[in-house]
Design a protein that fits this description.
CATH class of the largest domain: Mainly Beta
CATH architecture of the largest domain: Roll
Radius of gyration: 29 Å
Strand order of the largest sheet: 4-3-2-1-5
Number of helices: 2
Number of domains: 2
CATH topology of the largest domain: SH3 type barrels
Structural class: alpha+beta
Number of strands: 5
Strand content: 25-35%
Distance between the termini: 100 Å
Length: 110
């Protein structure tokens, strides 16, 4: 009817706590590999694509405007021609896709 002292002393143990944390740690590992790592790779690829934009490339902005890069102003802006004689300045980070690569800019010395 009463619990003997031998059984009462055996209930506390360090391994039970470790076993309880294993599923939580496993969920974080799965979360990292399924969600965080692919997102980091997409961000890295987008950053590389934006840094390699050059004159003559056909680009699509985040707003859906398709145009041709006419001038790379600095590391954050490009000038895009969206129609004949219609040029707009666009922030590089809003470029969502580079559709066609243009020709390399010709050197002034050549």
């Amino acid at each position: 009817m009463f619990i003997t002292p031998a059984y009462a002393q055996g209930l506390g143990g360090g391994t039970d706590m470790f076993v309880q944390f294993v599923p939580i740690v496993l969920m974080f590992v799965i979360f990292y590999f399924l969600l965080l790592r692919p997102q980091q790779q997409r961000v890295k690829a987008h950053r590389e694509m934006v840094s390699n934009v050059r004159r003559g490339d056909t680009v699509v902005t985040a707003g859906g405007i398709i145009g041709k890069v006419t001038k790379v102003r600095d590391e954050t802006e490009v000038e895009v021609e969206i129609a004949d004689n219609t040029r707009v300045r666009v922030i590089k980070s809003t470029i969502s896709e580079v559709r066609a690569k243009g020709e390399a800019a010709k050197d002034a010395a050549a």
